[in-house]
Structures are given as structure tokens and as C-alpha cells.
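Lecture 7, part B: from sequences to assemblies.

Below are the input chains for today's worked example.
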Amino acid sequence: MKICVLVKEVPDAAVEKRLDQGTKRLDRTGEKNLNPFDTHAIEAAMQIREGGAVDIDEIVAVTMGPESAFRALHKAVSLGADRSVHLTDETLAGSDVCATGYALARVLESESPDLVLLGQQSDDGECYTIGAVVADHLKMPSLTQVIKIDVEEGALKCERQAEYGYDTVQVQLPAVISVGDAINEPRYPSLKAIMGAKKKQLDTKSASDVDIEAGRVGEDGSRTAVLAVNPPPQKEAGEIIEDEDTGETVDKIVSWLDERKLLA
Amino acid sequence: MSAILTYALHYQGEFNKNSLGAVSEGAKLAKELGGEAAAVVVGDGEDLTDELCASLGKYGAGKVYRAKAPEGLAQPVVDVMAKVIQDEGYKYALFGGGLLGFEIGAGLTARLNAGVTMEVTEVAAQDGKLVAKRPILQDSAVVDVDYVSEPGIIIGRLNAFDLAEAGDDQAEVVDVEVQLEEHSTKASMVQRGEQRGADVNIEDADLLVAGGRGLGKAEGFELCEQLAEALGGAVAATRAVVDAGWYPYAAQIGQTGKTVAPKLYLAAGISGAIQHKVGMQASENIVAINKDPNAPIFEFSDLGVVGDLNKILPKLTEAVKAKRGG
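Predicted structure of the full complex, as C-alpha cells:
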């Protein structure tokens, strides 16, 4: 079985993220890192391999992004992927969710995986959606925010928290599964793995290498456009009580609640 | 004009509160666009009666498209909604947030090559089109997003859209036959809902008492439970304490948990990290009790109490009991 793990390079958590007012895109200067949510997807792939219920031929990290994104792939490889694929092309810049999902599906198609894993969200934006977009393009069954995976014959038994509690869903392979960060505790890469990552195979592909139609990606291929970027609505500062006499504090809280008819 | 199509999730003969919010919002927006709002319901049980489906008219749906297909999974709904949108020409698909809404909306994006916005907190009709407002980058900015083609997909943040009963109107119920895509039949529900001591339904509670690391230990939750009981509410928890095993995951509020908007959110020993904030900031009244005066939660609470929750909570519980009992 071959597993592809979708990963993404995002601004480091310590970097203050902001939009470029001109392009209305994320300002991607500054320190970058592998999207922390993706490390759970790589760990999930490693645990399927180590679980032994199925033979894993290969774990391939796949990303789409600017030239610098190879560093996220190195990190992914240091965490256990065997090799990596980097889809990078100027025509892809500015792609929205619709265009990104299409492009990722094209590059995944060229790898023919039995299982595509990804993190539930990226630190910088596209929450919860890419997995289901990719799955529809690939015509594979899909489930997102999965927190437990059991390997069965030709299928995965997945558990996740949905609207009414925990659902258990059996998904036949090939499939696209996005994992929640509660699924595992990702391991730290060994020094040897970090050093070795740069030597592992990394294939760089352009849009035309994977037959991406130019009109469907980038800013022109995107179906949404950002009109304006505004600061969030400011909330007025609330009342503050310093607790000195607890009896008095509690009286104040109770009358505050009562005024708002919360103690009916 | 067929303007807006919403998805109404149901479970055991009842519609989901967020879905009803989406139906209400869809009806309001459709009126502004000069068109009609409709809803899609999908299920394979006996509970999707004519009466239940027609009741969506109360929230403003003119039509309800009912399809027989597995429920609780997204991809069959993608097939149904894609067909209805293509046959009837709906301009927008609107979802009330929640996990299935994200999955269905994302699937439609691919199927219809449509623009999508998610975590939307507000939608406005402008010049016959919809513009979605979406907070980004940990709520540090809000972007206005325009759709450059139709249809457009709008996925709300949980509880973003208010439920509004418009009257006693009954929706017209239309049965639709849809041939499911092959891949949509390759996932099957083994077990649906609840389990793991999850009698926790924090999303529907009007009053929530939420506990964080400041409770000090798992037993600290007893203080929250007693206060919640006195208030007639439920108990919620932060990511940190769920990870620590102090409280069930099902009660977790925040980015990787649930989003709630109760009438009262009383946060005990919660610092107010952004990942938590996104799950509760829409609450009508936020009260925070924390011993650290610099805790970020005081920046967005309506009433902040700087003090020791071990002293305050038991007395507050007694006072609330006395007030409500008397």
C-alpha cells in the first residue's frame, strides 16, 4: 500500500501573520515551518506502517507551494516519509481553495496512492476543507477530522467526533482521510533523520508536468476574490471585579447575572 | 428565481440547530436577492416525514428537496445538492457550520468548480450578489470575499446564523431521485453518535460553566458541575484539560472542539487563548474568573473577576441556588 501525505509550509507560529494589503494574500515573508497539523498526518502514516496490519510500500510527502516549501518536505521526510514531491509553479500563486484542491488532486493522481492523509487544517487558513475537495476530484471516499484509524481488509475503520457524538465509519480504500490533532502525539525527528532528509528523493513538478489546466489555477482560475481586509469588530472592555471580600464579590456577580435575566 | 439552497441536517427526527440557523439566514438573504430559499434533506430512515420536512417552511424555506440516501455522511449529500443546484439553478449553497457542512461544501466546491468561503460569520447581499465576511489569522482580520462565478458556496462558522421562525408556512416537499456516485457509496456508518460518556450536549445549552487548567486538578471540575447544576446549565472544558484527561473530549470548546454561543459562558480558570476564544466568543454574556489579572480572557469578557476560583465558585453556587430557589 502506498500512502501520500499532503503537507504545507506555513509561517512559523511565532511570526505575526498578516495580509499584504496590496495583493490581499498572506504575507509569507519571515520564518516558516511545516504546518503543525500535518505532523499528525505523517505520524498516522507511520503508525499504520508500524502497526503491521498492512504492508506499506511507501510514504510520500506531497506539497504545493513556492520554491521555499522544500523545507517543509525535508521536515516531513525527517518525520518518516520516504520521499517527497513538490508541485511548484508561478501559475499556481494566488490559488483559492477550489483551485488548490484541483491542483493537489492532479499531482496526487500522478502518484496513484491507496491512501491520502492530511491534517485537519492549516495553521494559516484553509480550515477543514482541502481533504474533501481533493477527494471529490479523485473520486475517492473521504472523511475529515478522524481521531482513530484501524486498518481492515481493503478498508479503514475511522472514528471521529461529529454533530451528535462519536461516529465510527468504515471507509473503503483508496480514500482521503484528514486527521484531527487528537489522533496521536507526533514523534520528534532524530538528528540522524534530520541530517538524512536532504538526501532523500525530492521530485519537483511543474503545473504542466501533472497536466494542470492553466485556466483553473492561480488568481485567474480562482472562484473567489478578496474585496477588502478589515480589522475585527472591537469589543468594549468589560467590567472587572477584584476579589477582596468573596461574599461581596459573589453578590456582585449574582446581581450582574440577575440583571441580564440569566437566573430565571 | 432559485436563489439559495441550504442543507438541513437531522438526527432522530429533529433538525440540527445550526442547520435551522442556515435555513433562516438563507431565507433572509434570498428575499434580499429577490429569490427563493430551499433546503435539502437526506436520509434513509422513516423519520423524514412530509410533516417534518414541510416544517422547514417555518424558517423560511419555500421548498424542501428530500432524497433517500445514507445519512450522517457528506458525499451522498454532495451528489444530491449538486444535482439540485444544476437542475434548478440555485446561485448559492449555504451551510450552518459543523463538520458535515464543511465536508459537503468542500465536495461541492470540487464538483461544481465553485468558490468557497468557510468560517463565515456574516453574509451581505450587495448588487444582487452575496459577499461573505470571514475572520482570518486567528481573528486578527476580517476579509470580505466576493464570488466571481456562480454557484458560490458559503460555510458558516458554528452558530453564526440565528435561527428565526418566520411564521406557520409549510414548505413544498419535493422528492428527488439521485444516482449516487460510486465513491459516495464507499463509506458506511458503523455506529453513529454519542458514546464515551457523552451525555454532554454543550452546543444546545443556554448556560455553560467552562473549566480550564486553573482548576488545578480533575476534581476541580466538581466545582464547575455544582455551579452548572445550580444555574441549570452544562459544563464545558478547554483543550488543555481534555488533553490532561480531566474531562471528556465531547465537552471541549475551541478550534479543535466545539463552538458555542450560549446566553452565559462562565469561564473558570481559563486563560483565553485564541484557540479557545474562537469557540465561545459569540456567547451573549461572558464572565471570567481567573487569578491572573493579565489573562487574555479579560480582554473579551463582559464581567471579569480577578480572584481564586476555589473560594469564589462554592459561594457563587450557594448564592445562585438561593436566588433561583427563592
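Note for the exam: Chain A touches chain B through 86 residues (CB under 8 Å). Keep this in mind when comparing with the next example.
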